[in-house]
TrEMBL record:
CDD domains: NAT_SF. The gene is rimI. Keywords: Acyltransferase, Cytoplasm, Transferase. It comes from Marinobacter antarcticus. This is [Ribosomal protein bS18]-alanine N-acetyltransferase. One of its GO terms (cellular component) is cytoplasm.
Length: 162
């Protein structure tokens, strides 16, 4: 895997592709996860998601994973559990591309609604979701661990079918 630095995803050089993830992708996923979150998922949590009722999509540049999304399907509802882009590749469209892809796939699979939680302080992700049509439907108090105590989650949904 090439070493990533600030020049790794230089503007105009992006050549992004999306593919399903497999357990062999776990080391690259964990590397991104550890750099992406103050309270990252463990390898065990990721492993538990490789089941038929989940979808794991990776966004790649060349042969390297630069981000992923983890989604669970329950009846007609999709729960977006994790969406993360490598810090060196953010702000260049990879997150939006991946989100749009997973929404299109969910619609193709006849799912009706997407639900997600996002930290109140996560303005970048909240803006991304709003721009893609998600609406806030409530809050979950003290949902996330935080540096000091707990942080509320914004709950957002998107209807997929007309
Ligand atoms: C949230 C995240 C997935 C976005 O991925 P990204 O590749 O950086 O986002 P994109 O470049 O595709 O930008 C998509 C939208 O996000 C918003 N955005 C991206 N970077 C932003 C910034 N620095 N400031 C404000 N908004 C920003 C914009 O709405 C942007 O759309 P626009 O370019 O049309 O204005 C990424 O920042 C990330 O991995 N964050 C850490 C993990 C995380 O918080 N995940 C969400 C958990 S709910």
């Amino acid at each position: 895997m090439p070493k990533r630095d600030d020049s790794y995803c230089a503007a105009g050089e992006l050549d992004l592709t999306i593919r399903p993830l497999e357990p062999r992708d776990l080391p690259e996923m964990l590397n991104i996860e550890l750099q992406g979150y103050s309270h990252p998922w463990s390898e065990g949590i990721f492993r538990d998601c490789f089941k038929p009722s989940y979808r794991l999509w990776g966004v790649c540049q060349g042969g390297s994973l630069v981000g992923y999304a983890v989604i669970s399907y329950v009846l007609d509802e999709v729960h977006l559990l994790n969406l993360c882009i490598h810090p060196g590749c953010r702000g260049q469209g990879a997150g939006k591309l991946l989100l749009r892809y997973l929404l299109a796939e969910a619609a193709r699979e006849c799912m009706n609604q997407v639900i997600l939680e996002v930290r109140l302080s996560n303005n970048v992700a909240s803006k991304l979701y709003r721009n893609e049509g998600f609406e806030e439907i409530g809050r979950r108090p003290r949902y996330y661990p935080a540096a000091s105590g707990r942080e509320d989650a914004r709950v957002m949904t998107l209807l997929l079918q007309p």
